[in-house]
Inverse folding.
């Protein structure tokens, strides 16, 4: 049952909605990795780890996110032969990451964040912890977009290209999310 | 101040955003790849043989594309490089969209019907949230697509779905059940009578008709019949005796004596892994038989705190949900939350003339990322 996806690059980019060269490069790397080429898979890791990390950081403790990124890619490496469409790697690995975050919660192994009150109040670290906590309290779409922009250092156009959201949607998420974040941080300062 | 700096780092820097970037950079990902263990390499001859049909198909596609491009009027716009719309491309033969045979990729609009004949198959881009591979002799229709909600009707045939949208956003209506993606990859088959079967290869799927619900995790299969709805899911590696008895329970004559015999067979054959099936049976058998199922399930997966025999036997939905959560396939609260956002038509067994699903009005959501 099932056919191999033998599309031309032109068709492929149209069907997947990904930039043509990124999709083709991913597909070539996946095929090489499926044949056992570890450096090819390491290249996939470098291309997608920031996105995976951003997705996880929006859902789990910062101390756990790095470990989970590694676990997601190790799982992807083990299951790579089950990926029938090499060009779909980006969406596939993000699906693995989302499920890994859910499993993480289900197993109840979250690492407690360092409480803000034991951090020096005006230290950069405390400020970062407070900002991250405020972002993670936002609705999911704002949270993910802001983390990709402010933490992972991606630009709006890059986020749009990598998530397949329209640039307008990403811009709206950034704008609304940032407004809510300013209010949240302003509110917490006002309470101090 | 404009938000150009927030958007792409251009324009006048916003001091508050700059400060946040500096502070939050400590969380940025900068880890080297882990040590990936050695994989067994495919034999080179096998790889080369596998490549031959791919290369031939690619060369053929390029030739066809070249001819098509050469004949195309120069003013006709090319396909968008990046599109959030649904699109269809042929994998083999000439599938048809809205009654027209296609050879190149085309858009699939709401209301369009995609058909493959015995010699054709297709691949469908589900907006930006996934892909469907459509096998020969399949008919499907696009019912709705918008951010956060995508629905098709599969009237007959076979689709292989790989969806990376957040769970609950991709729905497939069949003549005998509604399939709700909960983050997964699966194969769904519907025959000419409207009967269906779903096989889940990753994640899990909710299958529903009226109040009859089935939840199918990775490695499991579930059948559905018009007028009955989804049957009881079971793992594909369960014994033939087990799966056949289960099928008779779900879709058999309904004769009490026969059902009783089949239930005993199911209970006798059930392994700990078949807790999945036993949990579903709790609400599908009654009286003394429900007690038997309860005890068998409790022996494999003890009910969690707060879940009592009395409550389960009386069908307490909260207790059943809590017990499901303990099976470890996914949180039932996810399903319950999404279930509130859509409803089915009163009679789903209406085939191609079935009215579209009615989506309940949603509160204004943020624009969701399609991870």
């Amino acid at each position: 049952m099932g056919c191999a996806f033998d599309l031309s690059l032109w068709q492929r980019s149209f069907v997947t909605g990904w930039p043509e060269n990124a999709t083709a490069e991913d597909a070539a790397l996946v095929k090489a990795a499926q044949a056992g080429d570890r450096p090819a898979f390491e290249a996939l890791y470098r291309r997608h780890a920031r996105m995976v990390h951003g997705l996880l950081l929006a859902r789990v403790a910062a101390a756990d996110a790095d470990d989970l990124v590694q676990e997601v890619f190790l799982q992807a490496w083990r299951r790579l032969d089950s990926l029938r469409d090499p060009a779909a790697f980006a969406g596939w690995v993000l699906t693995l990451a989302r499920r890994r975050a859910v499993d993480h919660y289900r197993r109840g192994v979250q690492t407690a964040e360092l409480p803000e009150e034991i951090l020096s109040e005006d230290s950069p670290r405390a400020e970062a912890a407070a900002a991250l906590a405020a972002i993670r309290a936002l609705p999911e779409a704002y949270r993910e977009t802001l983390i990709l922009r402010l933490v992972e250092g991606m630009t709006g156009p890059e986020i749009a290209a990598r998530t397949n959201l329209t640039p307008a949607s990403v811009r709206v998420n950034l704008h609304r999310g940032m407004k809510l974040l300013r209010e949240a941080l302003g509110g917490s300062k006002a309470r101090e | 101040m404009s938000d150009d700096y927030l958007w792409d780092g251009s324009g006048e820097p916003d001091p508050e955003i700059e400060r946040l970037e500096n502070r939050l950079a400590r969380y940025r990902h900068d880890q080297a790849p882990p040590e990936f263990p050695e994989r067994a390499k495919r034999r080179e001859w096998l790889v080369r043989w596998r490549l031959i049909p791919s290369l031939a198909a690619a060369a053929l596609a390029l030739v066809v594309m070249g001819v098509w491009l050469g004949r195309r009027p120069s003013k006709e716009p090319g396909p968008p490089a990046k599109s959030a719309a649904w699109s269809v491309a042929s994998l083999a033969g000439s599938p048809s969209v809205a009654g027209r045979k296609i050879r190149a990729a085309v858009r699939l609009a709401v209301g369009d019907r995609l058909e493959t004949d015995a010699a054709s198959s297709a691949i469908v881009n589900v907006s930006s949230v996934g892909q469907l591979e459509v096998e020969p002799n399949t008919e499907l229709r696009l019912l709705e697509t918008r951010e956060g909600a995508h629905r098709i009707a599969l009237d007959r045939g076979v689709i292989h779905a790989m969806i990376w949208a957040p769970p609950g956003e991709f729905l497939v209506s069949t003549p005998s059940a509604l399939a709700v993606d909960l983050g997964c990859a699966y194969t769904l088959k519907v025959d000419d009578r409207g009967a269906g079967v779903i096989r889940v290869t990753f994640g899990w799927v909710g299958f529903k008709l009226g109040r009859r619900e089935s939840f199918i995790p990775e490695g499991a299969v579930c059948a559905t019949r018009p007028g009955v709805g989804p049957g009881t899911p079971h793992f594909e590696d369960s014994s033939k005796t087990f799966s056949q008895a289960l099928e008779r329970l779900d879709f058999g004559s309904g004769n009490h004596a026969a059902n009783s015999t089949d239930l005993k067979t199911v209970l006798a054959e059930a392994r700990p892994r078949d807790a999945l099936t036993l949990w579903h049976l709790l609400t599908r058998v009654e009286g003394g038989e429900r007690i038997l199922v309860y005890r068998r399930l409790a022996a494999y997966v003890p009910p969690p705190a707060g879940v009592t025999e009395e409550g389960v036997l009386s069908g307490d939905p909260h207790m059943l949900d809590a017990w499901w959560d303990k099976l470890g396939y996914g949180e039932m609260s996810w399903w319950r939350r999404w279930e509130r956002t859509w409803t089915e038509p009163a009679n789903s067994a209406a085939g191609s003339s079935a009215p579209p699903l009615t989506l309940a009005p949603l509160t204004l959501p943020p624009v969701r990322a399609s991870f």
User: Anything to note?
Assistant: Chain B touches chain A through 80 residues (CB under 8 Å). The radius of gyration of chain B is 25 Å. Confidence is low (pLDDT under 50) at residues 42-83, 344-371 of chain B.
